[in-house]
Amino acid sequence: MRATKLDPELAVVVDEIDSLGLPEWHRLSVDAARTVENRVFSGDPEPAVADVRDLAFDGPHGDVPVRVYRPARAVDAAAGDADPVRTLVYYHGGGWTLGTLDSIDGPCRELATRADAVVVSVDYRLAPEHPFPVAVEEAAAAVEWAATTAPAFGGDPDRIGVAGTSAGGTLALSTALHAREFDGPDVAGQFLLYPVAGDDFGTDSYRENADGPLLTREDMRWFFDRYLESPVDAYNPFAVPLRADDLGGLPPATVVTAGFDPLRDDGVALAERFEAAGTPVEHRHYPGMAHGFLSVADRVAVAEAALGAVADDVRRYL
Questions:
Q1: Angle, in degrees to the nearest 10, between helices 301-317 and 8-19
Q2: Are the C-beta atoms of residues 70 and 112 closer than 8 Å to each other?
Q3: DSSP count for the chain of H helices, then E strands
Q4: What string of DSSP letters covers 227-296?
């Protein structure tokens, strides 16, 4: 499941980040970690998208900011000059503690362009100020909002998917579970990119990649400690999806995993659980990659190909 060496192109990126001398997340205060994450991972607004709007909707805990990306065909559809396009609700990563609309801007632009989709990026409230289940509740509300609002953007309310990276992948799966359990909007596909699915820090991938690169085992302990207010929360499948008794009856899934990622075995177990439960799943594994690799598709050929494969899956499922 893991290559003998990190992909050479990714290794260059990792070395550049290491050269900045940044402490691991768990060695920082929450405020400092947020500042670092935003500065390091917020890039230029590329590629160009026909229309990008910053909006907000009234969620269960107040206004929830969203950024809506529209390819040209969606703009035409909103004007009545084309058929509506698929809609993808996207949740950024950051251990439920870090992350902004800016930090995930690049991948959202890429998916809007490559998948010809309206992408709704959700700026859900963060822990520890807003611990579980606030992020899950806002994530589910975002899908409901997108389902009712999609036509105004040129999106198709009958072709809605959920996607996310890392902790955002957990939220994407949680929204699919929430929709199943509480008769929510129909979700046509879920795209879980190196998701946090379990809380077992003793897996092979946690041991092999305890010190990173880009994410460490202690980082993940730090994130969980801030996200979950009570030990009881760790048994809630909306927080830790591998705790779910049943992962059947869910929309088709793409699960992306990376060999040098502490979360690798979470994703593998999740894909296996989907398959056993009869949920269609495409498991895309990249042995030489590390956590977060899709965010450097502009510099790493394997990441570029992986992002293209995810976009193809979005087109296929939605």
A1: 110
A2: yes
A3: 10, 8
A4: H-SSGGGGG-TTTSGGG-S---S---EEEEEETT-TTHHHHHHHHHHHHHHT--EEEEEETT--TTGGGG
pLDDT category of residue 28 using cuts at 50, 70 and 90: very high
- Hunting for tokens 């994130």 — which residue is that? 223
Span 24-49, average pLDDT: 88
Q: Check pLDDT > 90 for residue 96.
A: yes
- In the block, tokens 């900011």 appear at 65
Which of 93, 283, 250, 230 shows the shortest CA–CA distance to 171?
A: 93
| Cα–Cα dist 30/36, whole Å | 10
Cross-strand partners of 117? 86
CA distance 114 to 163: 15
Bond before 133 cis per omega within 30 degrees = yes
- E-strand ranges in the chain read 51-59, 62-70, 85-91, 117-122, 155-165, 189-193, 253-258, 281-286
> Annotated catalytic sites, by residue?
166, 261, 291
The answer to pTM > 0.90 is yes
DSSP symbol at 26: G
What mean pLDDT do residues 54-77 have? 97
Letter for the amino acid at 204? Answer: D
Give me the CATH topology for the region 8-317.
Rossmann fold (3.40.50)
pLDDT score for 45? 82
The Cα–Cα gap between 124 and 53 comes to 17
Q: What is the mean pLDDT of residues 78-97?
A: 97
Say if CB 252 and CB 186 are below 8 A apart. no
Tell me if 58 sits within 8 A of 145, measured CB to CB: no
Nearest Cα residue to 215 out of 184, 259, 160, 261:
261
Distance between CA atoms of 51 and 68, rounded to whole angstroms?
8
